[in-house]
Amino acid sequence: AGRVLLVERAQEPQKGAWSLPGGVLRTGERLVDGLRRELLEETGLEVRALEVVEVFERIVRDAEGRPEYHYVLIDYLCEKAGGELRAGDDVSRAEWVERGRLPQYRITEGTREVIEKAYKVRRRLLLSV
User: Fold this and answer.
1) Chain center to CA of 62
2) Which one in 42, 48, 69, 108 has a CA-CA gap of 20 to 30 Å to 14?
3) What does the pLDDT look like over 37-81, one tens digit per residue?
4) What is the 3-state secondary structure (H, E, C) of the chain?
5) Within 13 A of 39's CA, how many CA atoms are on the CB side?
6) Is the pLDDT score of 129 beyond 70?
């Protein structure tokens, strides 16, 4: 409906920045199970994963330019299946943000591009029904 779910990070790295919800897989946890668990913990929402939108890696460097964090991120297009939106776990806020309001948020690097790609994937899925 023209909105995307964003969370404000409550911990480093990038504390205070807004991003798509997500987190770390547990050993032996399947990707989609980890996605559903992390979304529930961070936002109170139950979701259905529809399709992978993007796979990329993010390397966060310290003040001296050394790698401090190295993530492989897999972003899914999801739909809400239940629950009530609330900030939980390691986020300070969770909001449904209208697409036109995205520039008002300090969003983590690469996130806007993934959001735009997700809108294209969603449009393609709606047209194929």
Assistant:
1) 23
2) 48
3) 999 999 999 999 999 999 988 888 999 999 998 889 999 999 999
4) CCEEEEEEECCCCCCCCEECCCCCCCCCCCHHHHHHHHHHHHHCEEEEEEEEEEEEEEEEECCCCCEEEEEEEEEEEEEEEEECCCCCCCEEEEEEEEHHHHHHCCECCCHHHHHHHHHHHHHHHHHCC
5) 25
6) no
- If we measure between CA atoms, which residue out of 11, 93, 83 comes closest to residue 23? 11
Q: Cα angle at 50 between 116 and 114, to 5 degrees?
A: 20
**CB of 49 within 8 A of CB of 80?**
no
Nearest to 114 by CA among 63, 53, 72: 53
119 vs 129: CA distance, rounded Å: 16
Tokens of 99: 């697409």
pTM over 0.90: no
Pairwise CA distance, residues 122 & 98, whole Å: 15
